[in-house]
Design goal:
By secondary structure, this protein is of the alpha/beta class. The chain is built from 12 helices and 7 strands. The strands form 2 sheets. Strands 2, 3, 5, 6 and 7 form a 5-stranded mixed beta sheet that branches. α1 (about 10-20) runs parallel beside α3, α3 (about 55-85) crosses α5 and α6 runs parallel beside α8 (about 215-225). The chain is globular and about 65 Å long.
Length: about 325
């Protein structure tokens, strides 16, 4: 690793590696390369974690930054093959349509672990046809691109896989299209969005192709959907139902001792924080963050929880995340 164990890597470092090395045009070669790259980076990050050379925040940040870079280079590979066959999707002004990939869960929060699935939602700006010899409707182009990315990252080969990709958080879940337009997303949130989706979209973060239109979608549709302007009493019953569902699932699967899912585990701390974000985030902008490590201290600062409770939760979360990382490093 030529001394790489002794230094951290930034998002720009990962992007530079992808740009320099991820230029393969043959699919088998690309699949082999990206899997070996993942293995190298996971070993490097795990080594620094185990040696005590990186704190928890650095480890989670690097794991997330690598995932961003891997998703980005997979998107570029997928789009290159489609564009060669069908042409480029363009808007009425002739500009290329962005393929927006939204990361959810721990990836969206920039706090990914070593072997988590990645939850992705695929979006595109507007409908139309590609500009090429074999025109394809934009929706079909981006649906194919999304499926391609999931295959490139998730298909097991002799070198393993990069990430298991979960697409079930998209509008209408498994019954909905793999990619939807900005307009369709906005309409879905307004007419069909449920409270558990508000909970999920607290973490929504663009990890590829955000420019230039996603900011408008987030401002006009996603943020108002997640963060209501006034204290939302209707969400109490939904949060209670979600908590009961989690508890029943833990009992059914006998996960009482599970570090992530069991009572007092990682998910319960996440639930506490995100519940307060849903309830108070609309009137308290400081709670409008995707990062649990940023949001949790705000619960004391805004006097939503006693300071000593927040201190205990913060220490417990950091400890449990370290334990989870070590277990996953061993199992991988």
């Amino acid at each position: 690793l030529a001394g790489a164990l002794h230094s951290r890597r930034s998002a720009a470092d990962f992007a530079a590696i992808a740009a320099a090395e991820g230029t393969h045009t043959d699919e088998a070669t690309f699949q082999e390369w990206i899997r070996r790259w993942r293995r190298r980076e996971m070993v490097r990050i795990a080594w620094r974690d185990l040696a005590g050379w990186a704190d928890l925040e650095e480890t989670l940040t690097e794991l997330s930054a690598f995932a961003d870079a891997a998703i980005d280079v997979a998107c570029r590979f997928a789009k290159a093959g489609l564009t060669e066959r069908f042409g480029t999707p363009r808007g009425p002004d002739g500009a290329e349509q962005p393929f927006v990939v939204v990361g959810m869960g721990k990836l969206g929060g920039g706090e990914l672990n070593f072997s988590s699935d990645i939850d992705l939602v695929f979006l595109f700006a507007e409908h139309g046809e590609t500009a090429g010899p074999r025109p394809l409707h934009h929706e079909e182009y981006f649906v194919r691109a999304g499926k391609r990315v999931a295959q490139l990252l998730g298909t097991p080969t002799d070198a393993g896989f990069v990430y298991r990709v979960d697409l079930r958080l998209r509008p209408f879940g498994d019954s909905g299209p793999v990619a939807v337009s900005f307009g369709a997303m906005e309409e879905y949130l307004q007419q069909h969005g449920r409270d558990w989706e508000r909970y999920a979209y607290v973490k929504a973060r663009p990890v590829h192709g955000a420019e230039p239109g996603f900011d408008g979608l987030y401002r006009d549709a996603l943020r108002p959907f997640v963060y209501r302007r006034y204290l939302d009493f209707s969400v109490f019953e939904s949060l209670r139902a979600m908590k009961e569902l989690i508890a029943r699932e833990v009992e059914r699967r006998e996960l009482q001792q599970n570090v992530k899912l069991g009572p007092g585990g990682i998910r319960e701390i996440e639930f506490i924080v995100q519940a307060f974000q849903l309830l108070r985030g609309g009137s308290t902008p400081r709670l409008q963050t995707r990062s649990l490590l940023e949001a949790l201290p705000q619960l004391a600062g805004q006097k939503l929880l006693p300071a000593e409770t927040v201190t205990d939760l913060f220490a417990a979360y950091r400890f449990l995340r370290r334990v989870e990382n070590r277990l996953q490093e061993w199992n991988d």
